[in-house]
């Protein structure tokens, strides 16, 4: 995962500078006022969601396939509000209690 690019998981043709970054790098993305900034903070939550959903001991409400599909659909809209709404949903799921130590 350390070197896997975001574009290898998500559809990011409109954001090649973001897509070429690694999944690990996405975990430290910051936001800002542009659509690209909204995509960055969605991807931060999406990568965390993928890690949670993939872990066998975490009861995550979405599968990895559902996360990827929803993220791709939100990004494809190009609508900042749509992107941020999904970011908020994933953040809520990611911040639920965790059974792991």
At a glance:
This protein is an all-alpha fold and 101 residues long.
Count of structural domains? 1
Helix content: 55-70%
Helix/strand-derived category reads mainly alpha
Instruction: Note the overall shape.
Output: globular
Mean of all residue-level pLDDT scores: 93
Would you give an account of this structure?
With 101 residues, the chain is an all-alpha fold. It has one domain. Helices cover 56% and strands 0% of the residues. It has helices at 16-19, 23-26, 35-54, 64-77, 80-94. The two termini are 21 Å apart.
List the helices and strands and how they pair.
Elements: H1 16-19, H2 23-26, H3 35-54, H4 64-77, H5 80-94
């Amino acid at each position: 995962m350390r070197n896997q690019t975001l574009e290898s998981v998500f559809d990011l043709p409109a954001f090649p500078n973001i897509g070429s970054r690694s999944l690990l790098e996405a975990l430290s993305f910051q936001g800002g006022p542009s659509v690209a900034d909204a995509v960055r903070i969605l991807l931060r939550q999406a990568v965390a969601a993928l890690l949670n959903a993939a872990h066998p001991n975490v009861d995550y409400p979405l599968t990895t396939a559902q996360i990827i599909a929803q993220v791709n659909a939100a990004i494809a809209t190009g609508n900042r509000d749509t992107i941020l709404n999904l970011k908020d949903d994933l953040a809520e799921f990611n911040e639920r209690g965790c059974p792991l130590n």
